[in-house]
Records
---
Amino acid sequence: MNQEFHYYATYCAAILAGYSHQESEKIGYSACMVDFCTRTLLEKLGAPLNAATTQLPLELVDAWTDTVGLQDITRIWSSFHFLPADLYAKPKKRCSKRYLQKYRLICGPNSDLLEKTVRLAKNMDEQAAGIAMHVLADTWAHRYFAGTPSLVINNTNPYFYELFQNGDTVTEKKITFRHSTGTPDDLDKSIYTCSINYNSENSIMVLGHGRAGHLPDYSFVRYKYLPAWGDYEETVKDNPSDFRSAFCQMIYAMKYLRGVIPDFFRNQYDGEAVKPYSQQLDRILTKRQLDATEDWKAFAALLSGTEPEPFSMERYQEEYLRADEAEKSNTFLGRFFVAAMAQKSMVTHNIYNSGNTLAGNSVEYDGKGFRGIRDFRMLLHRKKGGSGS
């Protein structure tokens, strides 16, 4: 999902779930913050480095891709952006143990881990709710990609076509991927910027959907391709439908978090809450544009009568920096960091318990506080002679 969906669409879903403007803004901010909470930022704030929820391109370039380094990458990206759909999935054909472990990290919606993610945020604060909504939304946008480097799973090939629906007729246009940073995607010509083609199974260039660029994050796009993990059988991705499902599922999930409904179950969506606004929502989701911020802002103002304040990374930093050490965990960012560590610990624990070593060994978050990840502690002292990883 793009930034405007994580911030404004999450805000809109929270409003429809019954949260106030102030609460919805905090939830939307926290959902968006997941894409900005890097170790570079955490070092600047003097915050715990294991609260990182993403990595900057420069951090990834410097990242080690040995066993420990890959485990660190996998913990972050599988926990927050590519939640595994089935930790016990089996490919159609026999394969090596290493490939099987990667195959089981392929992202998808309505998983056991998604249910655990939402339940983990129950009885916590808006920061935890926002993190859970980011993870939920990304299970729809990042479907079929994995949060660990893998040429076999995440690479693209020449058979990649954008689909255009016109009534009952579907036309196709071949997609061109290019590595041209700083050049906007050309929607008219179906040209999208991607990561460098690097023929290595463990290269960071084949992490997540890097080889497909921002294409999977656009709400309007429909496409088909032949993934190697699917035995090169044609796979179709319908983002307008998937993003609508994500939006309705967020409303349902947040009604559970508010206590309006007693329990959370997979494959449940609150379409009723969206009905009065279906035309506006579908118009936003299907509009071909690089940035849907203005449309989402207008929709947010329509729902709440108040336009959310624009997202700014700096908004809560001064509060955190000025707080006494004992009070930092009670600040907005402090609560975000604790919720992030809880989510990462939960996902890592489940991956480890499934017999999969790609995220390393783990200790579960037990409700009394973050007890950490056993092999993560050495990462904090690995780089620059002990200054953090």
---
Amino acid sequence: MQGQSQQQAYDRGITIFSPDGRLYQVEYAREAVKRGTASVGIRAEDGVVLAADKRARSPLMEPESIEKLHKADDHVGVASAGHVADARQLIDFARRQAQINQLRYGEPVGIETLTKNITDHIQQYTQVGGARPFGVALIVGGIENGEPRLFETDPSGTPYEWQALSIGSDRSDLRDYLEAEYEEGITTDEAVGLALDTLAQSNDGELSPDGVGVATITVDEPEYTERPADEIESILDERDLLATDEDETDDAESDE
């Protein structure tokens, strides 16, 4: 019984390490991310692509209300997986940091700098009693000094830079697919197709234009742009990914 109570103490306290060096609450936050629908980020030769599975849990839900892709600044986009409310808090923080940098230094914030500011903020919530970690992971992508950059944030507060990655449900399978299919030097348009192919792997090979979101930021025009549904539908049709079944139900409880 004493061992069980000690286990519960490590389990409940965010500031207490277990004997084997683990913070259980951070690990539980990662599990919350896994329950969210997938998001994908791909770094191309001439830009960055963010794509997200945004299927509605009910046909009565307005697709526009499902927030998975966000504009953090003109040249920065963010995709999320996990608890939407936590993601909104971090997106608002990122937007404030981008504006502070612009006002203070008179230049757009760097992608790496912004990501590390976000992860520093996340990390504080793994060290303070009475708080809990953010149950969300983010993909931060954009253009920095004419170069595309792509980063991931983790609930522990650790930043990672990637060429291509996935977060959310089926992460391992989608990452394996990206490792097999990704090639350095691909164009942004090719990366859009690869991102949709990747998301389709966890959707029985089919996607609906209203159930997926795609945003791009290119080197030539470093402006965050979300692709319209009719363009996505055309790409899905070309790649034989267009869903024939209009059922958009989603069992993920942590994503909306």
---
Amino acid sequence: MLTRRRIEIFKCIVDEFVRTAEPIGSKTLMQKYHLPYSSATIRNEMLALEEMGYLEKTHTSSGRIPSTQGYKFYCEHLLEKRMDEKMELALSEVFSSRHLNMDDAIKRSCDILSQMTNLTSGVLGPNASMQRLEHIKLFPINERSAVAVFITDTGHTENKTFTFKEKVSVEDIQNCTAILNDRLKGTPIHEVVEKMQMLKPILASSVQRHEMLFQAFVSAFVKFASENVYFSGKGNMLYQPEFSDIEKLRGLMGMLEDTSLWRNIGAQNQLAIKTSSSSELVWMDDVAVVSSSFRINPEEEGKLMVVGPSRMDYDRIVSLLEYVSDMIEKLYGQGGHYDN
């Protein structure tokens, strides 16, 4: 049974472990938190919490640390959202920069989050496959490379760099872009590649290096429709004691590279909980993912995330993510906030 005393002791253990990453013993709790209980009483309560699955004992110390089940209980029942004033100021300055488009503002916010939490932050953008192509701009860098900018009907932009095996003339690039803009405007992103197949004869009659340009555009559109994940601060995981084991670190890096994983990370996961209409927490082994959703319009939803060890400051991180999500909706959403 979770009595008030056990909850009080458990919360102190979580707070202390988040700060120190060291197993917690009864002596530490008495000295730092001035609990009005004897050392024996605290030890007995810690043993009870361990037997209930909320704490676990490490092999190297007599102290205890929170278990994944313990973190889940903490976030469901003891979470106290706490906004970091310094970070709020830094983030508000990003959104006050009128020269930044939505994508740049979100990515800059991720960079700030990763710097100030020492964790990995990321954004899962609105699913581009639900959008329609509005315009393509192609800027030659030299005879063997160019940068393409795709713009959708929602204002979303995506940049792709093309590298060609052979030289391509500026005239070919301009002709190809003009044909695609004329024939593909208004096409749903997920239908663009299929429609481009029908344009091959037209490209062949007007563009000298049509096959090379065609393959470059097809590759770019496939990625545009499926790869819309940005992470900042991956290197921060090197400094987290939980990932000093190279195999654990390699596993986490593999997760960060798996685009499909992040779209369905909370689905059918028994260790996933919602703390509000927009925030979700998921635990996988030693990894925790805190996310907050935002809507640009009724059809499009994006997601901000902080990824790190289970030992993270949930009170602060949930508040920060919800703050950024609200700012995105207020400034870039159509008509303000959309409820889930």
